[in-house]
Design brief:
With 337 residues, this protein is an alpha/beta fold. Helix content is 41%, strand content 19%. It is built from 12 helices and 11 strands. The strands form 2 sheets. The chain has a 6-stranded mixed beta sheet, with helices on both faces. It has a 5-stranded mixed beta sheet with strand order 8-7-6-9-10, with helices on both faces. Helix 3 links the parallel strand 4 and strand 5. The radius of gyration is 20 Å and the shape is globular. The protein binds 5'-O-[(R)-(carboxyoxy)(hydroxy)phosphoryl]adenosine and zinc ion. The site of zinc ion has 5 residues, from helix 4.
Length: 337
């Protein structure tokens, strides 16, 4: 089954063709960073206008690279939420039109479910159910128990900033350009992670929730202090990163010990982080836990992961090409599951 997928939930204009939920024939993602960089973050109106300008070309590019025509596609999938409403509607309107004109089924996918299915791409053996996912991106940070393609439960989530948001804001404090996550990661590799003891959020009781705003504020106060003004930026970056990774791994280990899982996976933009990947690999190798990390191009937003989710969830996410609406606050649980 060949699925043409479209993803425009935030600031990446993406289209992909995926066979049977895992074989990526093409995946095109046009990043808009240059248009948002001078504002230090995503400007929703600019993001929607860029999607309008770029989406048809992205879809045609995805077909060309897969050497296919519209008529070869068996179904259309699109991210219908959550995300920026102005961005979502561009992708949803296009997908409805393609599905209607081509007489193909339309699947409406939750963006976060897409991230959960990223480890299924370009891999002969997908993660075995049930598995545990640490989903860390610019907009979300959560630990998810994935019991089946349509039964997923959030076990813990951030109370405030998402991990990627904490990276981007701290990178800004360090004078790094937007988006700061990859730049901070690179800077941290030249620093001493033990130089500064930034706070690790400890949840009350046995909660699996996360919090990063205290850490970000503590880095800010430190940088404004006399000691901070003289501190090596690389050491501050490495110490901040160590605190984020400690918190994420502590919560993931704790979740894993509470139930029986056949694998653990990482996903979302922050899954591309070198220190998080190293800590994740060290832990899973030590305990012989089957572990899955998508390649960086499938960690950050892309349309191939939306095609994968649509394939595995197809009986539950069929949508009407005349009436589907984008939903910026789309609930995580599938109502039909
Ligand atoms: O999944 P994604 O592309 O978009 C959302 O759905 O939010 O994630 C983007 C986030 C940004 O905050 C970016 O700074 C962060 O992922 N990110 C990283 C790295 N690469 C991307 N954060 C830390 N280290 C990285 N290597
Ligand atoms: Zn995302």
């Amino acid at each position: 089954m060949l699925i043409l997928a479209i993803e425009t939930s935030c600031d990446d204009t993406a289209a992909a063709i995926v066979r049977d939920g895992h074989d990526v024939l093409s995946s095109v993602a046009t990043n808009q960073d240059e248009f948002h960089a001078k504002y230090g973050g995503i400007v929703p109106e600019i993001a929607s206008r860029r999607h309008v300008a770029l989406l048809s070309a992205a879809v045609e590019d995805a077909l060309d690279r897969a050497t296919l025509d519209f008529g070869d596609v068996d179904a259309i999938a699109v991210t219908s939420g959550p995300g920026l409403i102005g961005s979502l509607v561009v992708g949803v309107a296009a997908a409805k039109a393609y599905a209607f004109a081509l007489h193909r089924p339309l699947y409406a996918v939750n963006h976060l479910h897409g991230h959960v299915f990223a480890p299924f791409l370009d891999r002969p053996e997908p993660p075995p159910f049930p598995f545990l996912t640490l989903l860390v991106s610019g907009g979300h940070s959560q630990i998810v128990a994935v019991e089946s393609p349509t039964r997923m439960r959030i076990l813990g989530r951030t109370h405030d900033d998402a991990a990627g948001e904490a990276y981007d804001k701290t990178a800004r404090l360090l004078g790094l350009p937007y988006p700061g996550g990859p730049a901070l990661d690179a800077m941290a590799q030249r620093g001493n992670a033990a130089a500064h003891a930034f706070p690790r959020h400890r949840p009350s009781g046995d909660s699996l929730h996360l919090s990063f705003s205290g850490l970000k504020t503590s880095v800010r106060y430190f940088l404004e202090s006399d000691a901070g003004r003289d501190a090596k930026r690389e050491d501050v970056a490495a110490s901040f990163q160590a605190a984020v990774v400690d918190v994420l791994m502590a919560r993931l280990r704790s979740a894993y010990e509470r139930a029986s899982y056949n694998a653990v996976t990482l996903s979302g933009g922050v899954a591309a982080n070198s220190a998080l990947q190293a800590a994740f690999r060290a832990w899973t190798e030590k305990h012989n836990i089957p572990a899955f990390i998508p390649p960086p191009k499938y960690c950050t937003d892309n349309a191939a992961m939306i095609a994968a989710a649509a394939y595995y969830q197809r009986d539950s996410v069929r949508a009407d090409p005349l009436t589907l609406c984008a939903d910026p606050n789309l609930a995580f649980e599938l109502s039909a599951a």
